[in-house]
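Note to self: keep these together.
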Amino acid sequence: MTDAHDINGLGVILEGIIRPVFLPEEGDKPTNALKAKPKAPAPSKTFWSKGTGYGSNALNQHGDFSAMDEQTKKEEKARQDKFEALNELYAYLLEAPNELYEQMSDVIGNSKLVYILCELFADDSFISMNRSSQVFLPAIEILYFFCTDKYLSKLFFQHEKKDDTSLYLRLQKLHVAADNYLKLSNAAKESKKHPIAPVNLPAPKISPELVIGYHPYYHRNAQPVQVKEEGTDYGELLANSICVLWKLVEAKKEEKENEEKMLKEKEKEEGKKKESEESSAKDENPAPSSSSSSSSSSSSSAEEHYKTRLKPLQFKMSEDSALFRQRHCFSAQLLQQKTHPNMRRILNELSTLTTSLPLSLDSSVFVAADPASSQLVKALISGPKDTPYEGGLFEFDIMYPQNYPNSPPSVLIVTTGGGSFRFNPNLYANGKVCLSLLGTWSGDAGESWNPTHSTLLQVLVSIQALILVEEPYYNEPGYETHMNDERGKVSSKNYNREVRKHTIRLAIVDQIHKAQANQTEFADVILAHFAEKKERILEVAQKWKNDTGIDDADMLNLRQALDSIK
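Structure:
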Protein backbone atom coordinates (compact mmCIF):
# COMPACT_ATOMS: atom_id res chain seq x y z
CA MET A 1 0.00 0.00 0.00
CA THR A 2 1.53 3.29 -1.07
CA ASP A 3 1.48 6.43 1.03
CA ALA A 4 -0.73 8.02 -1.62
CA HIS A 5 -3.39 5.47 -0.81
CA ASP A 6 -3.15 5.46 2.93
CA ILE A 7 -6.64 6.24 4.24
CA ASN A 8 -5.29 9.57 5.48
CA GLY A 9 -4.76 10.54 1.85
CA LEU A 10 -8.52 10.43 1.32
CA GLY A 11 -9.05 12.73 4.28
CA VAL A 12 -6.54 15.19 2.86
CA ILE A 13 -8.39 15.30 -0.47
CA LEU A 14 -11.82 15.67 1.16
CA GLU A 15 -10.84 18.30 3.70
CA GLY A 16 -7.94 20.00 1.91
CA ILE A 17 -9.24 20.08 -1.68
CA ILE A 18 -12.95 19.22 -2.02
CA ARG A 19 -14.28 21.13 0.99
CA PRO A 20 -12.47 24.46 0.37
CA VAL A 21 -13.61 24.49 -3.26
CA PHE A 22 -17.27 23.57 -2.68
CA LEU A 23 -17.72 24.97 0.83
CA PRO A 24 -15.88 28.27 1.24
CA GLU A 25 -15.44 29.56 4.78
CA GLU A 26 -18.31 32.06 4.46
CA GLY A 27 -20.99 30.33 6.49
CA ASP A 28 -19.84 26.85 5.46
CA LYS A 29 -22.52 26.78 2.77
CA PRO A 30 -22.07 25.63 -0.80
CA THR A 31 -21.68 28.46 -3.29
CA ASN A 32 -23.49 26.30 -5.77
CA ALA A 33 -23.68 28.75 -8.63
CA LEU A 34 -24.84 25.93 -10.85
CA LYS A 35 -28.41 26.27 -9.63
CA ALA A 36 -30.43 28.93 -11.43
CA LYS A 37 -34.08 27.96 -11.07
CA PRO A 38 -36.47 30.89 -11.33
CA LYS A 39 -38.70 31.41 -8.33
CA ALA A 40 -42.19 32.80 -8.50
CA PRO A 41 -42.06 36.33 -7.02
CA ALA A 42 -45.00 37.37 -4.86
CA PRO A 43 -46.92 40.31 -6.33
CA SER A 44 -46.51 43.54 -4.37
CA LYS A 45 -49.55 45.41 -3.10
CA THR A 46 -47.78 48.77 -3.32
CA PHE A 47 -46.09 48.63 -6.72
CA TRP A 48 -46.59 46.12 -9.48
CA SER A 49 -43.68 44.39 -11.14
CA LYS A 50 -42.08 45.75 -14.26
CA GLY A 51 -42.41 44.18 -17.67
CA THR A 52 -46.21 44.00 -17.61
CA GLY A 53 -47.17 47.67 -17.81
CA TYR A 54 -47.63 48.12 -14.09
CA GLY A 55 -45.74 51.15 -12.91
CA SER A 56 -42.42 52.90 -13.17
CA ASN A 57 -41.65 52.52 -9.47
CA ALA A 58 -41.85 48.74 -9.39
CA LEU A 59 -38.94 46.57 -8.40
CA ASN A 60 -37.23 44.52 -11.06
CA GLN A 61 -38.58 41.06 -10.25
CA HIS A 62 -36.92 39.35 -13.20
CA GLY A 63 -33.33 40.06 -12.19
CA ASP A 64 -30.47 41.98 -13.78
CA PHE A 65 -29.17 39.95 -16.70
CA SER A 66 -26.09 42.12 -17.07
CA ALA A 67 -25.15 41.20 -13.50
CA MET A 68 -25.85 37.57 -14.33
CA ASP A 69 -23.42 37.80 -17.27
CA GLU A 70 -20.75 39.12 -14.91
CA GLN A 71 -21.49 36.31 -12.49
CA THR A 72 -21.20 33.78 -15.30
CA LYS A 73 -17.66 34.95 -16.00
CA LYS A 74 -16.74 34.54 -12.35
CA GLU A 75 -18.25 31.06 -12.31
CA GLU A 76 -15.99 29.80 -15.09
CA LYS A 77 -12.97 29.51 -12.80
CA ALA A 78 -15.13 28.09 -10.00
CA ARG A 79 -16.32 25.34 -12.34
CA GLN A 80 -12.76 24.56 -13.37
CA ASP A 81 -11.68 24.39 -9.72
CA LYS A 82 -14.55 22.01 -8.93
CA PHE A 83 -13.70 19.87 -11.92
CA GLU A 84 -10.07 19.54 -10.83
CA ALA A 85 -11.07 18.81 -7.22
CA LEU A 86 -13.50 16.04 -8.20
CA ASN A 87 -11.02 14.55 -10.63
CA GLU A 88 -8.42 14.46 -7.86
CA LEU A 89 -10.84 12.46 -5.72
CA TYR A 90 -11.82 10.21 -8.64
CA ALA A 91 -8.18 9.44 -9.41
CA TYR A 92 -7.63 8.43 -5.77
CA LEU A 93 -10.70 6.17 -5.80
CA LEU A 94 -9.62 4.41 -8.99
CA GLU A 95 -6.30 3.33 -7.46
CA ALA A 96 -7.48 2.60 -3.93
CA PRO A 97 -7.10 -1.08 -2.88
CA ASN A 98 -10.26 -3.02 -2.03
CA GLU A 99 -9.29 -3.50 1.59
CA LEU A 100 -9.68 0.26 2.13
CA TYR A 101 -13.28 0.45 0.91
CA GLU A 102 -14.93 -0.04 4.30
CA GLN A 103 -12.73 2.64 5.87
CA MET A 104 -13.26 4.88 2.86
CA SER A 105 -17.01 4.61 3.34
CA ASP A 106 -16.67 5.74 6.96
CA VAL A 107 -14.35 8.63 6.09
CA ILE A 108 -16.59 9.86 3.25
CA GLY A 109 -19.71 9.40 5.36
CA ASN A 110 -18.25 11.60 8.10
CA SER A 111 -17.09 14.25 5.63
CA LYS A 112 -19.09 16.87 3.73
CA LEU A 113 -18.90 14.98 0.41
CA VAL A 114 -22.40 13.47 0.53
CA TYR A 115 -23.84 16.87 1.42
CA ILE A 116 -21.88 18.50 -1.42
CA LEU A 117 -23.09 15.93 -3.94
CA CYS A 118 -26.68 16.28 -2.71
CA GLU A 119 -26.44 20.03 -3.27
CA LEU A 120 -24.89 19.54 -6.69
CA PHE A 121 -27.57 17.14 -7.89
CA ALA A 122 -30.34 19.33 -6.51
CA ASP A 123 -29.88 21.12 -9.82
CA ASP A 124 -32.08 19.18 -12.23
CA SER A 125 -31.86 21.72 -15.05
CA PHE A 126 -30.27 20.11 -18.08
CA ILE A 127 -29.40 23.58 -19.36
CA SER A 128 -27.19 24.39 -16.37
CA MET A 129 -25.98 20.79 -16.09
CA ASN A 130 -24.86 20.92 -19.70
CA ARG A 131 -23.23 24.30 -19.11
CA SER A 132 -21.37 22.81 -16.13
CA SER A 133 -20.74 19.36 -17.56
CA GLN A 134 -17.12 19.47 -16.43
CA VAL A 135 -18.44 19.33 -12.86
CA PHE A 136 -21.31 16.89 -13.30
CA LEU A 137 -19.46 14.27 -15.36
CA PRO A 138 -16.74 13.48 -12.78
CA ALA A 139 -19.39 13.66 -10.02
CA ILE A 140 -21.42 11.00 -11.86
CA GLU A 141 -18.31 8.83 -12.27
CA ILE A 142 -17.70 9.06 -8.51
CA LEU A 143 -21.26 7.87 -7.91
CA TYR A 144 -20.69 5.02 -10.37
CA PHE A 145 -17.71 4.05 -8.25
CA PHE A 146 -19.84 3.98 -5.11
CA CYS A 147 -22.03 1.34 -6.80
CA THR A 148 -19.12 -1.12 -7.00
CA ASP A 149 -18.89 -1.84 -3.27
CA LYS A 150 -21.38 -2.77 -0.56
CA TYR A 151 -19.85 -0.33 1.91
CA LEU A 152 -19.57 2.64 -0.46
CA SER A 153 -23.07 2.07 -1.84
CA LYS A 154 -24.50 2.79 1.62
CA LEU A 155 -23.59 6.44 1.03
CA PHE A 156 -26.55 6.74 -1.36
CA PHE A 157 -28.95 6.24 1.53
CA GLN A 158 -27.24 8.48 4.08
CA HIS A 159 -29.64 11.28 4.97
CA GLU A 160 -28.52 14.85 5.42
CA LYS A 161 -30.17 16.39 8.47
CA LYS A 162 -30.67 19.89 7.06
CA ASP A 163 -33.39 18.92 4.59
CA ASP A 164 -33.60 15.17 5.25
CA THR A 165 -32.49 14.34 1.74
CA SER A 166 -30.11 11.74 0.35
CA LEU A 167 -28.29 10.97 -2.87
CA TYR A 168 -30.90 8.31 -3.55
CA LEU A 169 -33.75 10.83 -3.31
CA ARG A 170 -31.86 13.36 -5.44
CA LEU A 171 -31.26 10.78 -8.17
CA GLN A 172 -34.84 9.53 -7.94
CA LYS A 173 -36.04 12.97 -9.02
CA LEU A 174 -33.24 13.65 -11.48
CA HIS A 175 -33.67 10.43 -13.42
CA VAL A 176 -37.25 11.44 -14.30
CA ALA A 177 -35.93 14.52 -16.11
CA ALA A 178 -33.17 12.44 -17.73
CA ASP A 179 -35.60 9.79 -18.91
CA ASN A 180 -37.89 12.41 -20.46
CA TYR A 181 -34.91 14.07 -22.14
CA LEU A 182 -34.04 10.78 -23.84
CA LYS A 183 -37.65 10.14 -24.87
CA LEU A 184 -37.89 13.61 -26.42
CA SER A 185 -34.49 13.24 -28.06
CA ASN A 186 -35.36 9.85 -29.54
CA ALA A 187 -38.69 11.12 -30.81
CA ALA A 188 -36.96 14.11 -32.41
CA LYS A 189 -34.43 11.84 -34.11
CA GLU A 190 -37.19 9.67 -35.55
CA SER A 191 -39.22 12.65 -36.71
CA LYS A 192 -38.86 13.34 -40.42
CA LYS A 193 -39.86 16.95 -39.93
CA HIS A 194 -37.42 17.76 -37.14
CA PRO A 195 -34.47 15.34 -37.16
CA ILE A 196 -31.77 15.97 -34.61
CA ALA A 197 -28.14 15.48 -35.45
CA PRO A 198 -26.28 12.94 -33.30
CA VAL A 199 -23.44 14.11 -31.08
CA ASN A 200 -20.33 11.93 -31.06
CA LEU A 201 -19.56 11.60 -27.37
CA PRO A 202 -18.14 8.74 -25.30
CA ALA A 203 -20.62 6.27 -23.83
CA PRO A 204 -21.05 5.93 -20.05
CA LYS A 205 -18.42 3.69 -18.49
CA ILE A 206 -21.12 1.32 -17.18
CA SER A 207 -23.48 -0.18 -19.73
CA PRO A 208 -27.16 -0.94 -18.97
CA GLU A 209 -26.43 -4.67 -19.36
CA LEU A 210 -24.26 -4.53 -16.25
CA VAL A 211 -27.00 -3.23 -13.97
CA ILE A 212 -27.33 -6.56 -12.15
CA GLY A 213 -24.24 -8.61 -11.45
CA TYR A 214 -21.77 -6.07 -12.84
CA HIS A 215 -18.08 -6.79 -12.47
CA PRO A 216 -16.77 -5.19 -9.25
CA TYR A 217 -13.46 -4.23 -10.82
CA TYR A 218 -14.77 -2.55 -13.98
CA HIS A 219 -13.32 0.76 -12.84
CA ARG A 220 -9.74 -0.49 -12.98
CA ASN A 221 -9.70 0.40 -16.68
CA ALA A 222 -11.23 3.82 -16.17
CA GLN A 223 -9.39 7.09 -16.52
CA PRO A 224 -9.96 10.51 -14.98
CA VAL A 225 -12.71 12.37 -16.83
CA GLN A 226 -11.73 14.53 -19.79
CA VAL A 227 -14.18 17.20 -20.94
CA LYS A 228 -14.19 18.51 -24.50
CA GLU A 229 -14.15 22.14 -25.53
CA GLU A 230 -16.59 24.66 -24.05
CA GLY A 231 -19.96 24.62 -25.79
CA THR A 232 -20.12 20.90 -26.54
CA ASP A 233 -23.62 19.57 -25.92
CA TYR A 234 -23.44 16.83 -23.29
CA GLY A 235 -27.19 16.60 -22.72
CA GLU A 236 -27.61 13.11 -24.11
CA LEU A 237 -24.49 11.79 -22.40
CA LEU A 238 -25.59 13.24 -19.06
CA ALA A 239 -29.12 11.85 -19.46
CA ASN A 240 -27.87 8.38 -20.41
CA SER A 241 -25.36 8.36 -17.57
CA ILE A 242 -27.98 9.39 -15.02
CA CYS A 243 -30.49 6.77 -16.20
CA VAL A 244 -27.88 4.00 -16.01
CA LEU A 245 -26.70 5.24 -12.63
CA TRP A 246 -30.29 5.20 -11.36
CA LYS A 247 -30.67 1.55 -12.37
CA LEU A 248 -27.50 0.71 -10.49
CA VAL A 249 -28.65 2.56 -7.39
CA GLU A 250 -32.07 0.91 -7.58
CA ALA A 251 -30.34 -2.48 -7.67
CA LYS A 252 -28.32 -1.48 -4.59
CA LYS A 253 -31.48 -0.40 -2.81
CA GLU A 254 -33.03 -3.79 -3.51
CA GLU A 255 -29.90 -5.50 -2.15
CA LYS A 256 -30.05 -3.30 0.93
CA GLU A 257 -33.71 -4.11 1.56
CA ASN A 258 -33.08 -7.83 1.11
CA GLU A 259 -30.19 -7.71 3.58
CA GLU A 260 -32.30 -5.84 6.11
CA LYS A 261 -35.09 -8.36 5.70
CA MET A 262 -32.74 -11.30 6.21
CA LEU A 263 -31.21 -9.60 9.25
CA LYS A 264 -34.61 -9.15 10.85
CA GLU A 265 -35.46 -12.78 10.28
CA LYS A 266 -32.15 -13.83 11.79
CA GLU A 267 -32.77 -11.65 14.85
CA LYS A 268 -36.09 -13.37 15.41
CA GLU A 269 -34.46 -16.77 15.21
CA GLU A 270 -31.79 -15.72 17.73
CA GLY A 271 -34.27 -14.70 20.38
CA LYS A 272 -34.77 -11.06 19.47
CA LYS A 273 -38.38 -11.64 18.53
CA LYS A 274 -39.72 -9.48 21.34
CA GLU A 275 -37.72 -6.43 20.32
CA SER A 276 -38.72 -6.89 16.70
CA GLU A 277 -42.41 -7.24 17.62
CA GLU A 278 -42.30 -4.09 19.77
CA SER A 279 -40.76 -2.16 16.91
CA SER A 280 -43.40 -3.50 14.52
CA ALA A 281 -46.17 -2.61 17.00
CA LYS A 282 -44.93 0.99 17.12
CA ASP A 283 -44.86 1.17 13.35
CA GLU A 284 -48.28 -0.40 12.90
CA ASN A 285 -50.04 1.40 15.77
CA PRO A 286 -48.88 4.99 15.93
CA ALA A 287 -50.18 7.07 18.79
CA PRO A 288 -53.40 8.86 17.82
CA SER A 289 -52.99 12.57 17.30
CA SER A 290 -55.08 15.08 19.20
CA SER A 291 -58.11 16.69 17.59
CA SER A 292 -56.36 20.06 17.58
CA SER A 293 -53.40 18.53 15.77
CA SER A 294 -55.72 16.93 13.20
CA SER A 295 -57.48 20.24 12.69
CA SER A 296 -54.26 22.18 12.18
CA SER A 297 -52.90 19.67 9.69
CA SER A 298 -56.02 19.40 7.49
CA SER A 299 -54.81 22.03 5.02
CA SER A 300 -51.42 20.36 4.92
CA SER A 301 -53.09 17.03 4.14
CA ALA A 302 -55.09 18.61 1.32
CA GLU A 303 -51.88 20.09 -0.10
CA GLU A 304 -50.06 16.76 0.00
CA HIS A 305 -53.04 14.92 -1.48
CA TYR A 306 -53.24 17.42 -4.34
CA LYS A 307 -49.52 17.10 -5.07
CA THR A 308 -49.60 13.31 -4.92
CA ARG A 309 -52.46 13.12 -7.41
CA LEU A 310 -51.37 15.89 -9.81
CA LYS A 311 -47.59 15.46 -9.82
CA PRO A 312 -47.62 12.48 -12.26
CA LEU A 313 -49.75 14.60 -14.64
CA GLN A 314 -47.68 17.77 -14.48
CA PHE A 315 -45.61 17.09 -17.60
CA LYS A 316 -46.93 14.85 -20.34
CA MET A 317 -45.98 13.91 -23.89
CA SER A 318 -48.80 13.60 -26.36
CA GLU A 319 -49.63 10.13 -27.63
CA ASP A 320 -51.40 11.50 -30.71
CA SER A 321 -49.20 14.00 -32.57
CA ALA A 322 -51.76 14.68 -35.31
CA LEU A 323 -54.47 15.54 -32.78
CA PHE A 324 -52.05 17.63 -30.70
CA ARG A 325 -51.14 19.76 -33.73
CA GLN A 326 -54.78 20.01 -34.79
CA ARG A 327 -55.58 21.59 -31.42
CA HIS A 328 -52.55 23.92 -31.47
CA CYS A 329 -52.73 27.56 -32.63
CA PHE A 330 -49.21 27.54 -34.13
CA SER A 331 -49.46 24.36 -36.20
CA ALA A 332 -49.69 26.22 -39.52
CA GLN A 333 -46.57 28.24 -38.73
CA LEU A 334 -44.64 25.12 -37.79
CA LEU A 335 -45.33 23.54 -41.18
CA GLN A 336 -43.58 26.47 -42.85
CA GLN A 337 -40.39 26.05 -40.78
CA LYS A 338 -37.35 23.95 -41.54
CA THR A 339 -35.46 21.71 -39.15
CA HIS A 340 -34.79 23.65 -35.95
CA PRO A 341 -31.05 24.40 -35.66
CA ASN A 342 -31.06 24.42 -31.86
CA MET A 343 -33.34 21.50 -31.02
CA ARG A 344 -31.05 20.33 -28.21
CA ARG A 345 -31.58 23.58 -26.31
CA ILE A 346 -35.33 22.97 -26.58
CA LEU A 347 -34.94 19.38 -25.36
CA ASN A 348 -32.84 20.60 -22.41
CA GLU A 349 -35.61 23.02 -21.42
CA LEU A 350 -38.47 20.55 -21.82
CA SER A 351 -36.71 17.84 -19.81
CA THR A 352 -36.07 20.35 -17.03
CA LEU A 353 -39.78 21.21 -16.89
CA THR A 354 -40.58 17.64 -15.84
CA THR A 355 -39.25 18.34 -12.34
CA SER A 356 -39.20 22.15 -12.06
CA LEU A 357 -42.77 23.27 -12.70
CA PRO A 358 -44.55 24.92 -9.72
CA LEU A 359 -47.02 22.57 -8.04
CA SER A 360 -49.23 23.71 -5.18
CA LEU A 361 -52.85 23.64 -4.10
CA ASP A 362 -52.77 27.45 -4.38
CA SER A 363 -51.45 27.57 -7.96
CA SER A 364 -49.71 25.20 -10.39
CA VAL A 365 -48.35 24.96 -13.93
CA PHE A 366 -48.85 21.95 -16.22
CA VAL A 367 -47.21 21.33 -19.60
CA ALA A 368 -47.91 19.03 -22.56
CA ALA A 369 -45.46 18.56 -25.43
CA ASP A 370 -45.52 16.78 -28.77
CA PRO A 371 -42.43 14.55 -29.02
CA ALA A 372 -42.68 14.45 -32.82
CA SER A 373 -42.51 18.25 -33.05
CA SER A 374 -41.03 19.52 -29.80
CA GLN A 375 -41.32 23.13 -30.90
CA LEU A 376 -45.03 22.99 -30.03
CA VAL A 377 -45.98 23.09 -26.36
CA LYS A 378 -49.16 23.65 -24.39
CA ALA A 379 -49.35 25.00 -20.84
CA LEU A 380 -52.14 25.08 -18.27
CA ILE A 381 -51.86 27.53 -15.34
CA SER A 382 -54.20 27.40 -12.36
CA GLY A 383 -55.30 30.78 -11.04
CA PRO A 384 -53.47 31.74 -7.83
CA LYS A 385 -55.17 32.00 -4.46
CA ASP A 386 -56.72 35.35 -3.48
CA THR A 387 -57.00 36.54 -7.09
CA PRO A 388 -60.09 36.78 -9.33
CA TYR A 389 -58.59 33.84 -11.24
CA GLU A 390 -58.50 31.52 -8.23
CA GLY A 391 -59.13 27.86 -9.02
CA GLY A 392 -59.59 28.45 -12.77
CA LEU A 393 -57.44 26.77 -15.41
CA PHE A 394 -56.00 28.94 -18.18
CA GLU A 395 -54.57 27.30 -21.29
CA PHE A 396 -51.71 28.69 -23.40
CA ASP A 397 -50.30 27.60 -26.77
CA ILE A 398 -46.55 28.03 -27.17
CA MET A 399 -44.10 27.69 -30.05
CA TYR A 400 -40.32 27.82 -30.04
CA PRO A 401 -39.43 30.04 -33.04
CA GLN A 402 -36.86 29.08 -35.64
CA ASN A 403 -34.20 31.40 -34.18
CA TYR A 404 -34.76 30.32 -30.56
CA PRO A 405 -33.18 31.11 -28.09
CA ASN A 406 -32.15 34.37 -29.78
CA SER A 407 -35.85 35.22 -29.82
CA PRO A 408 -38.36 34.38 -27.07
CA PRO A 409 -41.08 31.75 -27.50
CA SER A 410 -44.39 32.76 -29.06
CA VAL A 411 -47.27 32.51 -26.57
CA LEU A 412 -51.04 32.82 -26.96
CA ILE A 413 -53.75 32.43 -24.33
CA VAL A 414 -56.44 30.01 -25.53
CA THR A 415 -58.93 30.46 -22.67
CA THR A 416 -60.80 33.46 -24.05
CA GLY A 417 -64.26 32.06 -24.81
CA GLY A 418 -63.48 31.96 -28.51
CA GLY A 419 -62.04 35.48 -28.43
CA SER A 420 -64.99 36.94 -26.52
CA PHE A 421 -63.34 37.97 -23.25
CA ARG A 422 -60.13 39.72 -22.19
CA PHE A 423 -59.06 38.33 -18.82
CA ASN A 424 -56.35 40.91 -18.13
CA PRO A 425 -54.83 44.04 -19.66
CA ASN A 426 -51.90 41.75 -20.49
CA LEU A 427 -54.05 38.87 -21.79
CA TYR A 428 -55.94 39.97 -24.88
CA ALA A 429 -59.16 38.45 -26.21
CA ASN A 430 -57.33 37.66 -29.47
CA GLY A 431 -54.81 35.58 -27.48
CA LYS A 432 -51.92 38.02 -27.27
CA VAL A 433 -49.86 37.81 -24.08
CA CYS A 434 -48.29 41.16 -23.19
CA LEU A 435 -45.01 40.67 -21.33
CA SER A 436 -41.61 42.30 -21.80
CA LEU A 437 -39.94 38.91 -21.43
CA LEU A 438 -41.76 37.90 -24.63
CA GLY A 439 -40.91 41.12 -26.43
CA THR A 440 -44.58 42.14 -26.49
CA TRP A 441 -44.10 44.92 -23.94
CA SER A 442 -41.24 47.39 -23.67
CA GLY A 443 -39.10 46.94 -20.59
CA ASP A 444 -35.65 47.54 -19.17
CA ALA A 445 -32.68 45.35 -20.13
CA GLY A 446 -33.09 43.18 -17.04
CA GLU A 447 -36.75 42.49 -17.92
CA SER A 448 -36.26 41.55 -21.56
CA TRP A 449 -35.48 38.19 -23.09
CA ASN A 450 -31.88 37.05 -22.64
CA PRO A 451 -30.79 34.19 -24.97
CA THR A 452 -28.37 32.79 -22.40
CA HIS A 453 -30.43 32.92 -19.23
CA SER A 454 -34.12 33.18 -20.17
CA THR A 455 -36.24 30.02 -20.49
CA LEU A 456 -39.82 28.95 -21.08
CA LEU A 457 -40.06 28.09 -17.38
CA GLN A 458 -39.35 31.73 -16.54
CA VAL A 459 -42.08 32.83 -18.96
CA LEU A 460 -44.64 30.51 -17.39
CA VAL A 461 -43.75 31.56 -13.85
CA SER A 462 -43.94 35.23 -14.88
CA ILE A 463 -47.46 34.77 -16.25
CA GLN A 464 -48.49 32.89 -13.11
CA ALA A 465 -47.07 35.39 -10.63
CA LEU A 466 -46.93 38.74 -12.43
CA ILE A 467 -50.06 38.73 -14.62
CA LEU A 468 -52.60 36.59 -12.73
CA VAL A 469 -52.59 39.03 -9.80
CA GLU A 470 -54.99 40.16 -7.09
CA GLU A 471 -56.05 43.42 -8.79
CA PRO A 472 -55.44 43.09 -12.54
CA TYR A 473 -57.16 46.41 -13.29
CA TYR A 474 -53.95 48.19 -12.37
CA ASN A 475 -52.00 46.23 -14.98
CA GLU A 476 -53.19 48.83 -17.49
CA PRO A 477 -50.37 51.39 -17.96
CA GLY A 478 -51.00 54.52 -15.93
CA TYR A 479 -53.82 53.07 -13.85
CA GLU A 480 -51.47 52.42 -10.93
CA THR A 481 -51.71 56.13 -10.10
CA HIS A 482 -55.27 55.48 -8.89
CA MET A 483 -54.40 52.57 -6.60
CA ASN A 484 -55.10 54.55 -3.43
CA ASP A 485 -58.05 56.73 -4.46
CA GLU A 486 -61.76 55.92 -4.45
CA ARG A 487 -62.04 55.98 -8.23
CA GLY A 488 -59.37 53.36 -8.61
CA LYS A 489 -60.84 51.12 -5.89
CA VAL A 490 -64.33 51.16 -7.45
CA SER A 491 -62.96 50.53 -10.95
CA SER A 492 -60.78 47.68 -9.71
CA LYS A 493 -63.73 46.05 -7.91
CA ASN A 494 -65.90 46.28 -11.02
CA TYR A 495 -63.10 44.84 -13.14
CA ASN A 496 -62.67 41.93 -10.73
CA ARG A 497 -66.41 41.22 -10.86
CA GLU A 498 -66.21 40.55 -14.61
CA VAL A 499 -62.99 38.54 -14.30
CA ARG A 500 -64.47 36.36 -11.53
CA LYS A 501 -67.67 35.75 -13.52
CA HIS A 502 -65.71 34.66 -16.60
CA THR A 503 -63.27 32.61 -14.55
CA ILE A 504 -66.26 30.54 -13.44
CA ARG A 505 -67.73 30.34 -16.95
CA LEU A 506 -64.61 29.86 -19.10
CA ALA A 507 -61.80 28.67 -16.81
CA ILE A 508 -63.86 26.25 -14.71
CA VAL A 509 -67.21 25.18 -16.21
CA ASP A 510 -66.07 25.21 -19.87
CA GLN A 511 -62.82 23.45 -18.95
CA ILE A 512 -64.73 20.66 -17.21
CA HIS A 513 -67.03 20.20 -20.21
CA LYS A 514 -64.07 20.09 -22.62
CA ALA A 515 -62.27 17.55 -20.44
CA GLN A 516 -65.34 15.32 -20.21
CA ALA A 517 -65.69 15.47 -24.01
CA ASN A 518 -61.95 14.75 -24.38
CA GLN A 519 -61.45 17.95 -26.37
CA THR A 520 -58.23 18.99 -24.66
CA GLU A 521 -54.75 17.61 -24.06
CA PHE A 522 -55.24 18.27 -20.35
CA ALA A 523 -58.43 16.26 -19.77
CA ASP A 524 -56.94 14.13 -16.96
CA VAL A 525 -55.31 17.18 -15.33
CA ILE A 526 -58.53 19.23 -15.44
CA LEU A 527 -60.73 16.54 -13.93
CA ALA A 528 -58.20 15.69 -11.20
CA HIS A 529 -57.62 19.39 -10.38
CA PHE A 530 -61.32 20.18 -9.94
CA ALA A 531 -62.00 16.94 -8.08
CA GLU A 532 -59.37 17.92 -5.52
CA LYS A 533 -60.43 21.56 -5.26
CA LYS A 534 -64.21 21.21 -5.54
CA GLU A 535 -65.13 22.33 -2.02
CA ARG A 536 -62.56 25.09 -1.97
CA ILE A 537 -63.78 26.47 -5.31
CA LEU A 538 -67.40 26.49 -4.12
CA GLU A 539 -66.39 28.36 -0.96
CA VAL A 540 -64.48 30.96 -2.96
CA ALA A 541 -67.37 31.37 -5.43
CA GLN A 542 -69.78 31.99 -2.55
CA LYS A 543 -67.45 34.69 -1.20
CA TRP A 544 -67.31 36.25 -4.65
CA LYS A 545 -71.11 36.24 -4.82
CA ASN A 546 -71.37 37.96 -1.44
CA ASP A 547 -68.65 40.48 -2.34
CA THR A 548 -69.11 41.55 -5.96
CA GLY A 549 -72.10 39.54 -7.06
CA ILE A 550 -72.15 36.31 -9.06
CA ASP A 551 -75.30 35.35 -10.95
CA ASP A 552 -77.40 32.52 -9.50
CA ALA A 553 -77.28 30.86 -12.92
CA ASP A 554 -73.47 30.89 -12.86
CA MET A 555 -73.42 29.45 -9.34
CA LEU A 556 -75.81 26.68 -10.40
CA ASN A 557 -73.76 25.84 -13.50
CA LEU A 558 -70.60 25.79 -11.40
CA ARG A 559 -72.05 23.40 -8.84
CA GLN A 560 -73.49 21.11 -11.51
CA ALA A 561 -70.21 21.00 -13.41
CA LEU A 562 -68.21 20.18 -10.27
CA ASP A 563 -70.78 17.58 -9.14
CA SER A 564 -70.52 15.87 -12.54
CA ILE A 565 -66.87 14.94 -11.89
CA LYS A 566 -66.69 11.35 -10.66
